[in-house]
Design goal:
The chain has 642 residues and is an alpha/beta fold. The protein has 19 helices and 28 strands. The radius of gyration is 27 Å and the shape is globular.
């Protein structure tokens, strides 16, 4: 490629760039160097091809939706005429975009089409031929794929970069923008990868985990803080510092072989500014534009406030998360289709079991309904739960399948949500004294509002995650309270999720977030402490407590499939029951410092027929179900016996 050609492309890049002037000023020198730097030319040799890429990168015959939209990217490709000859595939038309380096090709793939190489011909100044692969589907025939997640699961959330380094050879990938691995920096890459997770499948199974949720594994080729995964730069590629696409497919298969499901973390709302779709945008309206950089106000109430100002609603939904995260315009039907196809592609390609949807509340409302319907129409067993970091149960239920009417054109079809409201409640129960609605009583009122959901049992409950202060720190490193929290997590309604390291008392506060995203001790060769294999003291006690309860839960349907009944907390003690034909488990939580004597007669409707019980975590007998002396700061999980 000649220097003049490179500069022409560079000019096109800047003309279509959505970066702020300051960010463009940072990029200009790099583009100038591109014209003369032989090393960079070699590294980008693939860009000399007339067609740089087509998204989706391949597709399948036999999909329920026969329509396929190809986004073709290549220098000047937009003026091409397209033709094809393939039995069962029809060319419905092409659509040039504002940027001449893009062309949309619309296809219909009939049920009669067979797998093979679809020959596409692009006629412009030159004729370019491209062989596009159509594959045979495997997910409908394989029961180990797309299993979904249910109340029987126990999800383990981890950050791949911070969990374990299984392959040091992929720590530093030549040509990627982030600096080398630096474990002493909270914003740098630390080197964890897919192999590191797989190497510890045995640890997770011992803990009682049934599903793994890594934060996003897709490419984040950003120069700073690319470790967290939420500023993706390529919708169709696994980040090479974690492994290859093939490695990820193998990872999912290996997890399934070990009896572990995989939750794939996805971002619908935005993408990293270093991605090719931002650097050489198909059109200005692929991303939300502002005269100057405008951050979201992060006020989800603007989504459904009947009195909201147009400006506040626009800023919430169309403001950017950060200068490095371009906000996608999902009201553009072409963007909507691109995103829908991508998330169908990942399911079919890997056989993953569930999607956790990041920043769900910020996306265009019609798009959310279209996206959810399209994905679930194709994969009705796929698990899906959304991040709904909002205030108030009614607001959280609004973003899930609920009993509410359609509001302003929006009726959510998201099966479940991350239950921030119950997380607020358990934190308050363990840090504040009981009041009429405060302290442990907040747990009662939070679950009382479950009538708003179509099925609150599908909600994912948690104590902490990668965005909030760690649970053990929040409760003042009080081990008695820790056990109360874990007892609640593994016995309440919903699907429990544990954040990596909580089981071994990892601690710290956000602000900065990196403090709660530290490396798991033992995940790197040479670590002074290895909590995967050598736990002592309270770290061992904590792990054993979680493992005991999680594995008990796994084998006792009353806890994961039973009904839930609770009683209004009295004198700081909250009592609830999980029950089914398979058995009954009673949970009693004493939030007081002191022992409480509990008259059990008020629980007669659930205790009727039972004469005794066994506390699950200790094996201690509970011989008297008429009066119980419950120690302070204690949760009992009691299997009732007749």
């Amino acid at each position: 490629m000649t220097s003049s050609r490179i500069l022409l492309l560079a000019g096109s890049l800047l003309a279509n760039s959505l970066l702020t002037p300051a960010a463009q000023a940072q990029i200009n020198p790099a583009l100038a160097r591109l014209a003369t730097n032989g090393a960079l030319l070699a590294a980008n040799a693939q860009k000399t091809a007339p067609i740089q890429r087509i998204d989706p990168t391949f597709w399948w015959v036999g999909m329920k939706n026969p329509k396929l939209q190809l986004l073709v990217h290549g220098a000047g490709i937009g003026s091409s005429k397209v033709s094809l000859k393939y039995d069962g595939v029809t060319l419905d038309g092409v659509q040039p975009l504002e940027n001449p380096n893009y062309l949309l090709v619309n296809l219909t793939i009939s049920p009669a089409a067979k797998p093979g190489q679809l020959a596409l011909e692009f006629k412009g100044k030159k004729t370019v031929r491209y062989s596009y692969e159509l594959r045979a589907r495997t997910t409908p025939q394989d029961p180990t794929k797309v299993q979904g997640v249910t109340t029987a699961d126990f999800i383990y959330l981890l950050m791949p970069d911070r969990f374990a380094n299984g392959d040091p050879k992929n720590d530093n990938i030549k040509g990627m923008k982030a600096p080398a691995v630096a474990r002493d920096s909270m914003y740098s890459r630390h080197g964890g990868d897919l192999k590191g997770i797989a190497d510890h499948f045995g640890y997770l199974k011992e803990l009682g985990v049934t599903a793994i949720w890594p934060t996003p594994v897709v490419e984040n080729d950003q120069p700073k803080a690319s470790y967290h995964g939420y500023a993706l730069t390529d919708f169709y590629a696994v980040d090479r510092r974690y492994g290859t696409n093939a490695d990820y497919v193998a990872f999912v298969q290996q997890a399934h072989q070990q009896g572990l499901k995989v939750v794939h973390d996805v971002v619908l709302n935005h993408m990293g500014t270093q991605g090719y779709l931002v650097q050489d945008a198909p059109a200005k309206d692929w991303f939300h534009q502002w005269p100057a950089f405008t951050r979201s106000n992060f006020r989800d109430a603007a989504f459904n406030d009947p009195y909201v100002s147009g400006y506040d609603r626009k800023q919430f939904g169309e403001g950017w998360f950060d200068t490095t995260m371009a906000d996608l315009n999902q009201s553009n039907p072409l963007v909507s289709t691109y995103l829908i196809q991508n998330f169908i592609w990942w399911v079919e390609y890997t056989g993953l079991d569930a999607y956790r949807v990041d920043t769900y509340t910020y996306s265009d409302r019609k798009f959310l309904m279209d996206w959810g319907k399209a994905v679930l129409d194709e994969y009705p067993k796929l698990g899906m739960f959304a991040e709904t970091w909002v205030q108030g149960t009614q607001q959280q239920a609004y973003f899930a399948r609920n009993v509410l009417p359609e509001i302003d054109g929006f009726k959510s079809n998201m099966p479940s949500v991350l239950d921030f409201q119950s997380q607020y409640a358990i934190n308050e129960a363990l840090t504040k004294d009981a009041g009429w609605t405060e302290g442990i009583n907040k747990m009662y009122y939070t679950l009382q509002a479950d009538w708003l959901y179509e099925d609150a049992m599908r909600n994912v409950v948690f104590l902490d995650n990668h965005d909030v202060s760690r649970f053990y720190s929040v409760i003042g490193e009080d081990f008695a309270k820790y056990k109360m929290g874990l007892a609640w997590l593994l016995t309440t309604r919903g699907i429990p999720q544990l954040y990596y390291g909580t089981e071994v008392l990892m601690k710290n506060y956000t602000n900065p977030d990196g403090k709660v995203r530290e490396d798991f001790p033992g995940g790197w060769a040479g670590d002074k402490k290895n909590l995967f294999t050598n736990r002592t003291g309270q770290e061992a006690e904590a792990f054993n407590y979680v493992s005991k309860l999680a594995n008990y839960r796994k084998t006792h349907p009353a806890l994961h499939a039973g009904k839930y009944q609770h009683f209004i907390p009295n004198d700081g003690v909250y009592t609830y029951f999980r029950y089914s034909d398979a058995g009954t488990v009673m949970v009693m939580m004493n939030s007081n410092k002191d022992e409480k004597t509990v008259d059990m007669t008020r629980f007669a409707e659930r205790l009727n027929g039972f004469s005794s019980g066994t506390e699950v975590t200790t094996g201690a007998a509970v011989a008297d179900l008429k009066t119980v002396k419950l120690p302070g700061r204690t949760a009992w999980v009691v299997e009732l016996q007749k």
